[in-house]
Amino acid sequence: AEDQGGGMFDMRWTLTHHDIDFDAMLPGQIANHFPNTGAEIGAKVGLHRNLRSLAWFDGVDMASFFPRMYNLAVPGDMQDFIEDFVFTASLSLVTAFLQEVGDADDSDDADATPAGGDRPDGARGAAPAAGAVDQDA
């Protein structure tokens, strides 16, 4: 490939690996692509494809060390993304609801009778509500 930017650089940043003449690079010069890889690991989609195939070659689960990733140009990945999005959104709503219920339960516990049912006035059971009138008095 023809070197469009001249030979004097420390780092060359290009959109594709075809824009870099790796054979003409001097020691100490770096580029944002790897020579002779094409899109296999030098592009996100190629990296994703290769990481997914690890399960077939070495039994390694990509999710154990790499964040979820989808190629939305692939119909199966698009469907996986939609399902993951719906699941994650649903889980978020359920978690928020359970936290609200837990917070409400915690505030109810502050008004409840202590363990054993003993009240500070020595009586058993729940304390009368504030403003309640004692009919036996």
From TrEMBL:
Keyword Nucleotide-binding belongs to the record: yes
Sample GO molecular function, one term: protein-glycine ligase activity, initiating
Residue ranges, compositional bias (Low complexity): 112-137
Region span, Disordered: 103-137
UniProt keyword annotation of Ligase present: yes
Keywords in alphabetical order: ATP-binding, Ligase, Nucleotide-binding
This protein's GO CC annotations: microtubule cytoskeleton
Protein's recorded name: Uncharacterized protein
